[in-house]
Amino acid sequence: MKKSSCGVILTLLLAVLCLSCQKDEPVSPHTLIAPPDPIVIGLWKVGKIEYKVCRKGSCSVTNYSGNTKDYFEFRTDSAFLSYKTAADYRQLETFKADYYMPGSFTLTQGFWTAQYLVKEYKVEKLVLECSYMGSDPYAVFTDTYYLYR
Q1: What structural domains does the chain harbor?
Q2: Cα dihedral angle (128, 55, 60, 73), rounded to 10 degrees?
Q3: Alpha-carbon distance 92 to 80, whole Å?
Q4: Which of 32, 127, 138, 145 could form a disulfide bond with 119, CB atoms 3.0-4.6 angstroms apart?
Q5: What is the pLDDT of residues 68-110, one digit of tens each?
């Protein structure tokens, strides 16, 4: 019994010595965050939104043609989408925006999160594409936004 106690104590002592020899990495007081992609920041008018739904290999597409009051506004930490609904009232959606990856960004609204890819950019034109899954596990939704300044 005395030999097994000494073995346990020796093992613990050895483990403590090994762990105490490791160097700690310095802790940075600031997390580095990539700045927002300047090409998307600002107010963009909605020219068209293409809604595509694919279920089990079959896809359907519907289009929304923007009107003069429709816009997508991107700020450094948020985004706003304003458009007219089928019931003819103005809808304003608010998102948290993260611009960590070049050529794309993430918008979050409650529990919903989606990655938006910049498919085309010109000074006066921006095309964004977003694919996500909804409550139907067999459906993939792809929204394409055609925006202009």
Answers
A1: 42-148 (2.40.128.280)
A2: -20
A3: 7
A4: 127
A5: 899 999 999 999 999 888 778 889 999 999 988 888 999 999 9
